[in-house]
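Can you give me the bound-state structure? Components:
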Amino acid sequence: MAEQSEAKQDQPSYEPKIVAFCCNWCSYAGADLAGTTRMQYPPNVRIVRVMCSGRVDPAFVLKAFTLGADGVIVAGCHPSDCHYINGNEKTATRGDFLEEFLEETGIEPERFRIEWIAGSEGQKFAKVIREMVSDLEQLGPIAQEGA
Amino acid sequence: MTKNERVGAVLVIGGGPAGMQAALDLADSGFKVYLLETTPSIGGTMSQLDKTFPTNDCSMCILSPKLVATGRHENVTMLTYSVLKKVEGQAGNFKVTLAKYSRYIVEEKCTGCGVCAEHCPIEWSSAFDRELAPAKAIYVPFPQAVPLIYTIDRGLCIGCGICEKFCEAEAIKYDMDPDIEETIDVGAIILAPGYDVYNSSKKVMYGHGTFPNVLSNIEFERMLSASGPTEGHVIRPSDGDVPKNIAFIQCVGSRDAQTPNTYCSSYCCMAALKQAVIAQEHVPGLKTTIFFMDTRAFGKEFEEYLHRAEDEYGVRMFRNNRIAKVQENPGTSDLVLGFIDGADIEDETFDMVVLASGATPPESSKALAKSLGMNMNKFGFCETDELAPVDTSVPGIYVCGAFSGPKDIPDSVAQASGAAGKAAALLSDERGKLVTKKEYPEEKDVTDKEPRIGVFVCHCGINIGSVVDVPGVMEYASKLPGVVYAEENLYTCSQDTQKKIKEMIDEHDLNRVVVASCTPRTHEPLFQNTVREAGLNKYLFEMANIRDQCSWVHRLEPEAATEKSKDLVRMAVAKASMLEPLPQPKIPVTPAALVIGGGLSGMTAALEIAKAGYEVHIVEKEKELGGHMRRIHHTLAGVNPQETLANLKKDLQDNTNVTIHLGETVEEVKGYIGNFETTLKGGEEIKHGAVVVASGAVEYEPTEYLCGQHPKVIKQTDLGDMLAKGELDAKAVAIIQCVGSRNEEHPNCSRICCSTAMANALKIREEHPETSVYILFRDIRTFGFAEENYNEAARQGVRFLRYDPESPPKVRADGDGIIVEIDEKFIEETITIRPDYVVLNAAVHPNPDNKDIAQKLKVPQNEEGFFLEAHMKLRPVDFATDGIFLCGLAHSPRLIDESISQALAAAARVNTVLSKPFIEGEGVVSVVDEEKCIGCGRCVDLCEYGAPRLEEVSPGVFKSKVNEALCKGCGSCVVECCSRAIRSKHFRSDQIITMIEAALADDDEEREAKA
Ligand code: FES
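Here's the bound-state model for the whole set.
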């Protein structure tokens, strides 16, 4: 939390916004468990629930960035744990492509994360959000080229 | 009720994976189920596990949906925190008395919010965490508990009254009666009370309970769990340091003549391997060592797991080791143990020690046996017969899971389905009589109507309200586009609020409903049900999770939490305004089954399906039924199964529901669950609603050890024939194990060979005491009670010689005679024997026909060529494709009783399909826009469930069509479709984008304002 307050001093008005796509069966359950066990993390994330991380179209990620998200997370079940057998494999492949693409458009790699979060990993969910918020605070808002 | 009348209800005792499976199978096939569980939540031992072998799946992730499904099944009545008192009556009609312990909580009122536990001043050790973490006097056993109702432990409670003050639901009642008796009528009883973990402290030489750094396997499992007491951090209890090396000691309280438990607990070897691997993943650089007697990795793909642990993770393994004792270095709390490494004795120091505590009969078993009047085996587990593995000694009472002997989860689950199948067959005439189908009013037509959204914001007692400004959120919601009504509730999930929601739907003509409260994962079905009762399609409902994902995780930032809640509500409302009613397709079912394979498994499954009242077709390639069973003359228990086989054949031939197609194979299979059409080679066409694959396996034809070149080298089956005919004439017989298994080409263990070797060896020693028997082995894997046969064989003078795969025995011809040389690993010497026969225990290999069957049914095989089930732990006899099931050797090598269990299970699973006139599909499915589809077939290739198929719509023009009955609604195909022709209902792209827009809307406005 220390870095957070430091960063806040630098840019008092900057509150990064994160959109997280979570699959229903593992990552959304992980986010719920963070709550059940009362873990605390910064309030910067808005979760969009999908049935499987395989439903997340790269277009959604790009859309979120265009609409002003400072960071985007796609979260699914751990490899081989997908409730639909292998939806998350597709997520992983698309993630690689997205990472490359985003880099080309000048969006820093820290702004996009693919995470495998199990239903028992409340604390991993909280950790990922904490890390990303602190990364984004360091980075500041996305440079608005041509905007 | 007259004495002989049967009751269409079943009591299942025990709520672990086995009990839940039995309950669900019965409830799904038209029976009323009472699920009795002694603890406050269902879930069993599995709910304490971090990961499961051999896939390292997260245990809670796979268990939790099952818990929820059981908890909310309309035909299942949960009797948690209750015990059995008395059983009277007979098969078909039992009167059961049970006592419900008081939770000192009004169950109907408790919302599971947990405010009470937060304020409870008492801290103690939670049984769930096996004494590693503090819990409260008012508790749920674990966060995902079902039912999610708190319980007061009156032994710990000091009656301070704090929780009562904080419980806004007014659910706490200190002066409740301690327990209440209840009686129920059921037609059958299924026992699934599971097992207890051996109390390792009894083995004082290991220091459990004395030395802080000695843990039992279940304690270590809790430590590995992210939701466990250390949040998944592996630390030494003595000083909190991260260990650098951990030793695992196997067979603690099993295979142990110093205890009554001389049997093998079956799962501990794999559990230790798993824990070693997972621990190394948690702690980089950690070294793990396992001390085994034998590595018992006998299950499907277990041996490959063992190899990965050894080769990829560098887990050190010392075989032939029963550790004598653990000593503690008092200064450092480090642990020293002595072990044998080949012929040498070594000492080594470890930071931590994990004991493989075995399985013992559950504490309740004696009382259970007494009140049910059934036989137990000498270890205190339920007695079963090899050829009737789910029957107890009392008719109408069936058994499954570890209560009939230690076993791992998939075997328990399969046996559970099997027990359910037996109960269903017993009560087949009563099917559907005690279950009520819920009637809903006709759905209002909302198409083309402007959205009129009602928003209900929940305080959840003080769970949300003490952090989030609920009235503010409600006020905000009321102004959002499309919202015509908003209110706040103390508990939105309470009975009276449900009533209120329905009234408001009527009063304000609401056509969409949003609830802002807890998580849709547990509460969406409840609210969907409510809107349905008010005449709305259940998909016109949406939730905003402002508790689990907001107030609970941002307690110290109430303002930000309020803002976030507003955002979440805005997102939900935005999606709600785009929701559409979705039909749930009704798929008619042909009440008949096709069974591929007429061996023991196929026959058993077919007979059970026929007994349940459905038409069955058995297709067998050979001209005769019976498969491998025809050549088995004595089982492990020494019984000749030929009579059973003959009876089975006769029963099938006599049953009018059964059609046997001999000398036939399947030519083509079309269709899907409920509606298959199969053409046989001979041209016959069969319509059926479900399929069972029981294609069996083949015995490996060895080419090694002079097999086929020397008349004195024979196979195990030949030895069986010889013994049956009384033709064995030999001074010495050498049996070589693992021929054609556990090698590069076939890496896995054939599971049955060690047990069969013991059975044959004992038979030889009994009938030909003059014949010496040598068993040349790598590990002896007589798991479960078969260990007794191993012990007995040793007592009868069978000689065991261990070899390494690197230097297998050498078999040489010596004229008519034969010489075997073995590098014996216990004594590290080369031994030469001159047996009259060398018997090769040839592996069980997958049936080469599987490939063809797999292609026709579009179901997967594993790398070895056995069929691959939908889930290795919890769906052992299902394929991922609905309506297709598997059992027996087609699944993997297994013993006779295990094959029968699986066959009964497959039959029970088939019954869940055939018992319904219609299958109700889900509304969340994908649909293809034919205009846009270019018929590339990409979706067909990638769907694991075979939902999309290409159809020729006009000559040469193919379009994909998604079969709603098969689609699971994951939505992967939507993203992969190159012509964007697929739409995922309820998760449409425009709906998701609307939510993204809503999530980020503030920023936009701000930016606009700034600009
Ligand atoms: S369901 Fe979680 S990634 Fe597929």
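A couple of observations. The two ends of chain B are 81 Å apart (CA to CA). The longest helix of chain B spans residues 989-1010.
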